[in-house]
C-alpha cells in the first residue's frame, strides 16, 4: 500500500464504526456491540461499541477483510515534503504501527442523514512506528540522508477528526464510500531514532539524531500536515476495503 504524502486514527475509527454497526449476518466476533440509528442514545452506544471493538480489531477480523491493527503493517508509505524549512522525502518500508489497542474513545457523533462521523480520542500509550526507511533532503538548516532502520515514538494528548462518507451502488447493492478524512492530532512528545544516517558515519548520525530530538516541535510543525494527509490516505484504503465487502443495510441498522 502506497500513499501519496497522517490519519493514524480517524481512518481506524471509521473501520471500527462500521464493524460495530454491522448486522448479525456479517458474522462479527463475539463481544461486538450493535447499535441502531433509532436509538435515542445512538452516539453513546457507538462510543461503547467502538471501545469494546478495539481489542477485537487489534487481533484482526480476516473474514471482514480487516487487517491486524496492533501492530498494523503498512508495506510502503511516503512522506514527501517538498518546500519550507523542512524539505524531505521519507520513504517507509515494512512499517509497523504499535499500540493502536491503547486507543480511548472520548466523544463520538454520527449523522446518518449526512453520513458524517465526528470523533475525539486519545491513545493511552505512545504510538510507535518501527520501520525500514530511506530519507533525503533538508531539516531546518542541515542536510540529511540515510537508509536503514528507524523508530519513531509519538505521544498524543488528543485526536479530533471528521470522516465523510457517501452511499454508492455496486452490483445492485448500496455500499458506503469514504469521501474524505480530515483530522488533527495534538502531540506532546516526539522521539526519533534513525540508524545508518550519512552512510553509517556514527558521529554525524548521532549528532543528527540529537538535533532532531532537540528540535522535534519545529520539525513536527512543518511535517504535521503532510503526516496527517499520508496516513489518512493509507487508512482510508484500509477502511474502504471493508466497506466494499458489506452493503450499507448490513453496516447501519435502522
What features would you highlight for this structure?
254 residues; disordered N terminus; alpha+beta; seven-stranded antiparallel sheet; elongated; 4 helices
Explain what you see:
By secondary structure, the chain is α+β, with helices and mostly antiparallel strands. The chain has helices at residues 10-20, 42-59, 202-214, 216-243, and strands spanning 72-81, 86-98, 103-111, 116-123, 127-139, 142-170, 173-194. Helix 1 packs across helix 2 (42-59). It is elongated. The two termini are 34 Å apart. Mean pLDDT is 80; it is low at 1-12 and 19-26.
Write the layout of secondary structure elements.
Blueprint: H1 10-20, H2 42-59, E1 72-81, E2 86-98, E3 103-111, E4 116-123, E5 127-139, E6 142-170, E7 173-194, H3 202-214, H4 216-243
Antiparallel strand pairs: 1-2, 2-5, 3-4, 4-6, 5-6, 6-7
Brief summary:
With 254 residues, the chain is an alpha+beta fold. Helix content is 28%, strand content 41%.
Number of helices: 4
Amount of beta strand: 35-45%
- The separation of the N and C termini measures 34 Å
Main sheet specs: 7 strands, antiparallel
- The coarse silhouette is elongated
Contiguous low-pLDDT stretches (5 residues minimum) are 1-12, 19-26
What Rg is obtained from the alpha carbons, in whole angstroms? 19 Å
Mean pLDDT: 80
Helix content: 25-40%
User: What is the structural class?
Assistant: alpha+beta
What's the order of the H and E elements? Answer: HHEEEEEEEHH
For the secondary structure, the number of strands is 7
